[in-house]
Design goal:
heterodimer; A: globular; B: alpha+beta
Chain lengths: 249, 383
C-alpha cells in the first residue's frame, strides 16, 4: 500500500542496507509526515470555504479535529527522538531525522493556523464582506493551498528542485496580503465593514501569509535532506559581515 | 452504467485475484473454485483476454492485497493519484478499510477533497474468497453533483413559482374590503409587479423547454454583428437606468455562424443582460468577437461583483442562485445561463466562464463557424 516514492526508497535501501529496521522506521515516519501534510493541504481550502460561507458547524468540526493532528505530531516527534537516541544515525540518515523534527513542527503549526481561520470565521459571523474582499480571500486560500501542496509533494518525492521553487511562489502570496490590507482600508472607509471586522480580516490575511512561510520552511528542509545544504539566512549573513567589520576596527 | 462496471469488475476481479494470489503465494493446493474454473483447460484461450489486462483497462481503481497485507495488484487508474497529496490521503483511508476486509467485513468510505475542483472519491473494500482483500476506488464527484442538481431543482422551482403566486394571494386578500384609494393603488402596483414576475419565469421555462428539446433548430447563416447589435438592444433599458456603457470591440469583417438566429440572440442577450445587471453603476461592459480554429468566440466581460469559485460549475443549472437575497433585486428568473448553455449545446458549441469575486466575470460563447460546419458536413459527420 506504499506509494511509488516509498517503494523506490525501500528498494534502494534493500540493496546495501545494513540497518533494515532503522530504515523501515524512518520510511514510516516520512509516510506519516506526508499524511499529516496532505491533511493540512486539504484543510486550507476547507477553512477558506468555511470562512467565506460562514459555516459555523464546519468551523466547530475542524477546530475539534485539530486535536488529532496535535496528537499525531507529538507521537511522530517521539518516534524521531527514539530514532536519534537508539540508532545514532549519521550523514544523510541524521539529516532525515533532524529535518523530520523540524518539518513536523511546521506542519503542526500550519494546522493550528487553519483552525485559527475557522475561529476567525466565528468572529466575523453575520457580517457581509464585499466581493472584492471575498475575491482576495479566495485567492489567498488557493495560493496557500498550492504552496502547501508543493511542500508536501516535494517532501514526499524528495524533490529538491521543486522544493526550491516554493520560495518564489510565496512572493505572490505576500503580494496578495498587501493587496488585501489595502482593500480592507478601502472597505472600511466606505463604511462597508466596521473596525472590528476590519481587524479580524487583517489577522486572517496574516494567517494565510504565515501558512505560506511554513510551506517555504518545509521546502528548505526538504532541500537540506537531499543536498545537505541550508539556504543562507539573510540575517545571519548581515550579522557575519558586521562581525567581520568590527574585528577590523 | 457505473454500477454495471462495478459488478463486472468485481466478477472479473474475483477470478483474477484468485489467479494472482495463487501465483504469488505459489499455493495451488488451496486454490478456490474460481481459480480452478479459470484454470480449466476447456476454457478457450485467445480470443479470451488475459484478465489482468482487463482490470488494467477499467475506468475504476482496483487494489488487491494478499492475506499478509502486501499489495499484489494495483491497476493504472488506482495509481493516477500517486505522488500527490490526494494519493497520500487515499492510501491512508484505504489501509483500515482493507484491514477490515481481511478479517471478513465489507467496508466503504468516501474521501472528500476540497480541491478546487471539489471531488468525492469512494473506496469500497471486500474480502476475497481464499484470503486477501479487494478495494475498488470510484470517482463519485459527477454523480454527487447530478444528485445535488436534481434535489435543488425541485426545491428551487417551487420557490420561484410559489413566491410570486403566494404574494399575489396575500395582496388580493388585502384588497378585499379596502376603501382607501391610496392603499388600493399601492397594493395593485405590487400585484402587477408580482404577476409580471411569475409570467417571466413561466416564459423563460417554456423557452428553455423548447430549446432543451432541440425544437426545430433553424439552420441559416447568421451574421455575428447583427446578433450582437440585437443582444445589446435587449439590455439597453437596464443599461441606461444604471448608467452602464456597453462597448463592442473589433468584430472581424463578415464574421458569421450557422444556427438559429433567435436562439443565438436569446443566449448572447442573456449574457449581456447579466453583465449589465451585475456591474457597479457607471461601469463598463465589453463585447468582443474572436475567430478561433473553426469557432466564433463571443466574449462578454464585466468588472462587476464576480462569481465565487465554488459556484462556477453550478451557475448553468436551472434556478441556481449564487446569492438568493441579491437575485430578487436584479429581477432575473434564474434561467438565463441555463438557456445560454442549451443554446450552445444545440449549436455544437459551448459556454465558458472565468470569474473572480470583486474583479468581474467573462463569459465566452463558442459557436462553430459556417466554414467548420460545412467542412464537417462534407466529411459526412452529422452535427
Amino acid at each position: 500500500m506504499s506509494n511509488d516514492a516509498g517503494i523506490s526508497v525501500q528498494e534502494e535501501a534493500a540493496e546495501s542496507d545494513l540497518r533494515p529496521s532503522f530504515h523501515h522506521a524512518l520510511d514510516q515516519v516520512r509516510a506519516e509526515i506526508a499524511k499529516l501534510g496532505a491533511t493540512v493541504t486539504e484543510n486550507i481550502p476547507r477553512a477558506t470555504e468555511i470562512l467565506l460561507s460562514q459555516d459555523l458547524e464546519g468551523a466547530e468540526y475542524m477546530i475539534l479535529a485539530d486535536d488529532a493532528i496535535d496528537a499525531a505530531s507529538i507521537d511522530l516527534e517521539d518516534r524521531c527522538y527514539s530514532l536519534l537516541a537508539l540508532q545514532a544515525p549519521v550523514a544523510s540518515d541524521l539529516r532525515q531525522v533532524v529535518a523530520a523534527l523540524r518539518i513536523i513542527a511546521e506542519v503542526e503549526r500550519s494546522a493550528d493556523l487553519t483552525t485559527n481561520l475557522c475561529k476567525a470565521a466565528r468572529r466575523i459571523y453575520g457580517h457581509d464582506l464585499d466581493p472584492k474582499l471575498r475575491g482576495i480571500i479566495q485567492k489567498m486560500g488557493d495560493q496557500a493551498t498550492q504552496l502547501f501542496k508543493e511542500a508536501t509533494e516535494s517532501y514526499l518525492s524528495s524533490d529538491a528542485a521543486r522544493a526550491a521553487a516554493i520560495d518564489d511562489m510565496d512572493g505572490y502570496l505576500d503580494g496578495l496580503q498587501r493587496e488585501f490590507v489595502q482593500a480592507i482600508f478601502e472597505s472600511h472607509q466606505m463604511t462597508k465593514i466596521d473596525l472590528q471586522v476590519a481587524v479580524q480580516l487583517a489577522i486572517v490575511a496574516r494567517f494565510y501569509e504565515r501558512i505560506g512561510d511554513h510551506a517555504v520552511n518545509i521546502g528548505e528542509r526538504t532541500q537540506f535532506v537531499v543536498t545537505g545544504w541550508v539556504r543562507e539566512q539573510m540575517g545571519a549573513v548581515r550579522h557575519a559581515t558586521r562581525q567581520a567589520a568590527s574585528d577590523i576596527d | 452504467m457505473t454500477i454495471a462496471i462495478a459488478a463486472i469488475s468485481c466478477a472479473l476481479a474475483g477470478i483474477t485475484i484468485g489467479l494472482i494470489i495463487a501465483r504469488r503465494l505459489g499455493d495451488t493446493t488451496r486454490a478456490t473454485p474460481a481459480t480452478q474454473a479459470a484454470l480449466q483447460p476447456e476454457r478457450p484461450a485467445p480470443p479470451w483476454p488475459d484478465y489482468v489486462q482487463v482490470l488494467d483497462q477499467l475506468p475504476i481503481g482496483i487494489v488487491i492485497v494478499a492475506p499478509d497485507r502486501a499489495t499484489v495488484y494495483r491497476n493504472p487508474w488506482a495509481t493516477t493519484f500517486g505522488g500527490t497529496h490526494a494519493g497520500v490521503l487515499l492510501d491512508a483511508m484505504m489501509e483500515p478499510l482493507l484491514e477490515q476486509a481481511l478479517v471478513g467485513e465489507h467496508a466503504r468510505q468516501v474521501l472528500e477533497l476540497y480541491g478546487p475542483p471539489r471531488r468525492s472519491i469512494a473506496v469500497a473494500s471486500s474480502p476475497l474468497p481464499g484470503g486477501g482483500a479487494l478495494a475498488s476506488i470510484q470517482d463519485e464527484s459527477e454523480r454527487r453533483r447530478i444528485d445535488a442538481v436534481r434535489t435543488d431543482f425541485v426545491a428551487n422551482i417551487s420557490h420561484e413559482l410559489k413566491t410570486p403566486v403566494g404574494a399575489l394571494a396575500v395582496l388580493a386578500e388585502t384588497l378585499v374590503g379596502e376603501t382607501d384609494p391610496e392603499v388600493i393603488d399601492r397594493v395593485a402596483e405590487r400585484m402587477v409587479e408580482d404577476a409580471h414576475r411569475a409570467a417571466r419565469t413561466i416564459d423563460d421555462l417554456l423557452e428553455l423547454a423548447g430549446i432543451e428539446m432541440g425544437e426545430a433548430l433553424v439552420r441559416e447563416r447568421v451574421d455575428v454583428a447583427d446578433v450582437i447589435a440585437e443582444s445589446i438592444s435587449r439590455a439597453r433599458q437596464i443599461g441606461e437606468q444604471r448608467n452602464i456603457h456597453v462597448e463592442v470591440l473589433d468584430i472581424p469583417k463578415g464574421a458569421a455562424v450557422v444556427g438559429d438566429r433567435r436562439q443565438l440572440v436569446s443566449a448572447l442577450g442573456n449574457l449581456v443582460e447579466n453583465a449589465v445587471k451585475y456591474s457597479e453603476p457607471g461601469g463598463e461592459v465589453q463585447v468582443r468577437v474572436r475567430a478561433d480554429d473553426g469557432f466564433m468566440e463571443m466574449m462578454v466581460a464585466d468588472r462587476g461583483i464576480g462569481i465565487p469559485a465554488r459556484d462556477h460549475d453550478r451557475i448553468f443549472e436551472r434556478f441556481y442562485r449564487v446569492d438568493r437575497a441579491r437575485s430578487r433585486d436584479t429581477g432575473g428568473t434564474g434561467l438565463g445561463l441555463s438557456i445560454v448553455r442549451h443554446v450552445a449545446d444545440n449549436h455544437g458549441g459551448e459556454v465558458l466562464v472565468s470569474s473572480r469575486e470583486g474583479e468581474g466575470s467573462t463569459f465566452v460563447l463558442r459557436i462553430p463557424t459556417s466554414s467548420r460546419v460545412e467542412a464537417l458536413r462534407q466529411q459526412g459527420v452529422r452535427q
